[in-house]
Structure formats: structure tokens, C-alpha cells
Amino acid sequence: MPVSPTVRVQEAPFDPAAESAALTAGRVDVGGLASFVGLCRADDGLSALVLEHYPGMTERAITRIAEQACARWPLTGCTVIHRHGRLEPGAPIVLVLTASSHRAAALESCAFLIDWLKTGAPFWKREEFADGAERWVEAKAEDDLAAARWGGAP
Amino acid sequence: MPVSPTVRVQEAPFDPAAESAALTAGRVDVGGLASFVGLCRADDGLSALVLEHYPGMTERAITRIAEQACARWPLTGCTVIHRHGRLEPGAPIVLVLTASSHRAAALESCAFLIDWLKTGAPFWKREEFADGAERWVEAKAEDDLAAARWGGAP
Amino acid sequence: MRVLYFAWVRQRVGVAEEEVSPPPEVRDLAGLVAWLSARSPGHAAAFAQARQIRAAVNQEFAGPEAPVRAGDEIAFFPPVTGG
Amino acid sequence: MRVLYFAWVRQRVGVAEEEVSPPPEVRDLAGLVAWLSARSPGHAAAFAQARQIRAAVNQEFAGPEAPVRAGDEIAFFPPVTGG
């Protein structure tokens, strides 16, 4: 039976080391642990990113995507944490962690999860700039393509 | 100009959190940090894995592979740490960390590096079992294929 | 029926959520959008570019033909940009 | 010429490294393997399955046709299994 993913949506920072330890501590069946952390970049004088989300639906949508990853690859563990609220340049935004006996399963499912989070989880990014300007980030066609390469939507 | 990778071959454990911080601390141009940790599994009653390597050539071979990753993808940082010596089940063996402005570059180069480390770095694993048996791990054709999908050898 | 708005859709409408009771001829999301658009200039501005709008019915992504009923939680928002 | 052995190649040869001075007609790795194989039963056993052996000249992977010279560091080992 596939493992149940751990999914959290929070304003607070996350601790990749503690989350990694939770997926591997005391186990001897994990051969590979892949992780991805998305961070806030300071492009074009950006001073902060404000992430709005849809409470309730966000957790539900991420859980569905993560459950699909757990069903599609032989994972021993899977954790997704996505932050919301105001994030300054350099701040971590999202953590994806996948553990498996097999390295390819861990690496592929990690890429799958981040691609689908981009297109399937109800978050919206507003950019705030040093000069006071604000701008909603527009969805990118390339993100839809990246998600589509994995086949059907979760 | 491509960044210079950090490469270490050591018996001691490594600290993924500290290595991640070294690639991101004080920076605002990193959009994605991908990592992979390979761990020792306790398959078939394995009690330890003993990794032999070729001092000198190991660092050189890993550095060449890592430099190719830095040239092929727009990385802002790249760290590879590979342990040798006696490792018990659950112990981390190898750490690959790649940072980039773009998530796809970080994820792809991380997968590239671990695939090539499997086939291009002079390490040999000996398995020790609870019943006293020992066995050299045989190279897998699937590892050669995984590396080959990236095109020419580094 | 509870209607939620997010991101620039929320900013244009002017409220984050509202309780509405559309007439019985409003049966799907497309009908609800047409009916909501007539409520205020803000609503009209929010829904002006229909191709830029995504929606969810009871916290599941849904297309224009998705049925809507009394008691549903409906949300309108731009294409998502998380991750 | 310094010759290093690793993993089960080292175990079969019985030493981790040795200094050798092959005759001038030994010009490449294939020739060196043939010459080394005659040194002892251990060497012969190590090189018996030539397809299982990989090599490096001066810490670079090299094939059977790679030239070898006095002063080189040559290594023989099984296919690698790191990562």
C-alpha cells in the first residue's frame, strides 16, 4: 500500500533537516532521499513576495498530488510543505522531500511534485518592489508544459 | 563563467543542512535548491557496506563530472560529498546539492550528477552480511543506461 | 451559495467572499459568472477576461459547465502561481 | 611504473600496489595486462576475465589501447559501483 504523504501549509519557516530525519530515522530501507527547496529570488528589485492561498482547498489539492506520487512511485516517505504570507528574498517557499529504496523513484517523484505544485495548488504570488510597485505573478505556459509531461492531472 | 563545484571525499558524515546553507546564505538569486542523499540499505541481511576508492583519482573524476554539470546548467552552486570506509545500514553515503535560479536546472543537474557518480567515480562497494559472508557489489547495466541518457561522458 | 475570490479577482470584486442566492436559471459556473458580472462594476471588471479566470466548486477545480447548487462553495481566481 | 589494484582485483593479486618495469615491447594497457598476468597465479586470476577489468592511466579512465610508459601510474579495478 502506498505511504501517506505529510502535507503542511503554513506561514512559518520549515526545517529540511528535521523533515529529512523524520523520513529516514530508524529506517534501513531508504536508499535515496531527494529534496527540492524553492526560494524567493530578488529579481528586478523585488522586495517581497506575498503568497495568497485558498485555505482548505490548498491542503486538499497538495495532498491529492502527493498521494498520486506515492501511488506512482515506490516511495517510503513523502513530505510537502508550502508556505504562504509575506516572504522576503532568500526565504524558502516550498519543500518537497521524497524517499525511496531506489534513487530514480525519489528523484523523479520529487520533480513530479514540484511541477504539479506549480500548476495544481491554489497559490497566487504578488510581487512587491522597492519602488512601491506591486504585480501579480502571471502563470507561465512553460509550467503547464512541465506538469503536462507527467501525463494526466492528479 | 560557470561556478566551481565543491567536491569532498571523506570518511566522516556530512551535514546536508550546513552544505545547503553554504549554497544559499546571503544570496537572493537562488530560486531552487535540489539535493539527493544516497543511503546504505539493509537488503538481504546486510550488516555493512565498505566503500573502497582510488584516492586522488576519485576527487579528480567527481570534480570533472561536477564541472560538466556547472557548464551544462546555469547553476549558482554545486556540492558533491562522497563517503568511503565502513558504512552501516541507514548511513548516508553521498550528497549531491545543486542550486540555480531555475528549478529545472537544479533538479536535472542533481539527477545527472548522481547518475554519473554511479558510473564515473572510482568507488567499489563490498557488502558484509550478518552471517559473515562478503560480496563485491556488481556494476549494474541499468546504471550505465541511466548515465548514458545524459549524452557524452564527462 | 458562498462565493470566494482570490488574488486580483478579489481585488477587482472588492470583497474576499460573499453569500449569494442566484435565480434557479443559474445552473453552472458559466451562468454564475454571467449573473455575478451584473452585480457591480467591480464584478464586471473581475470577470471581463473570462479566459484569465479559473474556478473551483467545493474546493475542486471545475470548468464553465460544472453545475452549481445552493449550499456550494464556489471560488474564482487567476491561474495559480505557487511552487 | 607504479601499478595499483582495487577491490577484488587487489584481493586476487594479493597486493594493493607494486612497482614494475615491463620490457620495452609492453607499450599499451593490453600488453601490460598480458605481461602482468604472467607474474603470479594471483595476477593470472585477477586478469582472467578481461571483460570485467577497467583501468586508469595517470588517474584517467583508459582502454586497452592506451599507451603506457615508465613513470606512469596505472590502476586496474572492477567496474565502479559508487553513488
TrEMBL record, chains A, B:
Domain of life where this protein originates: Bacteria
A molecular function GO annotation: molybdopterin synthase activity
InterPro entries the record matches: MoaE_sf, Mopterin_biosynth_MoaE
Reactions the enzyme catalyzes: 2 [molybdopterin-synthase sulfur-carrier protein]-C-terminal-Gly-aminoethanethioate + cyclic pyranopterin phosphate + H2O = molybdopterin + 2 [molybdopterin-synthase sulfur-carrier protein]-C-terminal Gly-Gly + 2 H(+)
Pfam families xref list: MoaE
EC number(s) recorded for this UniProt protein: 2.8.1.12
Coiled coil ranges: none
Pathway it works in: Cofactor biosynthesis; molybdopterin biosynthesis
Keyword terms: Molybdenum cofactor biosynthesis
Gene Ontology biological process terms in this record: Mo-molybdopterin cofactor biosynthetic process
Description of how the protein assembles with itself and partners: Heterotetramer of 2 MoaD subunits and 2 MoaE subunits. Also stable as homodimer. The enzyme changes between these two forms during catalysis.
Family as reported in the entry's similarity comment: Belongs to the MoaE family.
Function: Converts molybdopterin precursor Z into molybdopterin. This requires the incorporation of two sulfur atoms into precursor Z to generate a dithiolene group. The sulfur is provided by MoaD.
Protein name: Molybdopterin synthase catalytic subunit
Lineage: Bacteria, Pseudomonadati, Pseudomonadota, Alphaproteobacteria, Acetobacterales
Automatic annotation (TrEMBL), chains C, D:
InterPro entries given in the database record: Beta-grasp_dom_sf, MOCS2A, Mopterin_synth/thiamin_S_b, ThiS/MoaD-like
Coiled-coil segments on the chain, per record: none
Pfam families (alphabetical): ThiS
Keywords: Nucleotide-binding
GO MF annotation: an example: nucleotide binding
One cellular-component annotation, GO: molybdopterin adenylyltransferase complex
GO biological process: Mo-molybdopterin cofactor biosynthetic process
Family: Belongs to the MoaD family.
Designated name of the protein: Molybdopterin synthase sulfur carrier subunit
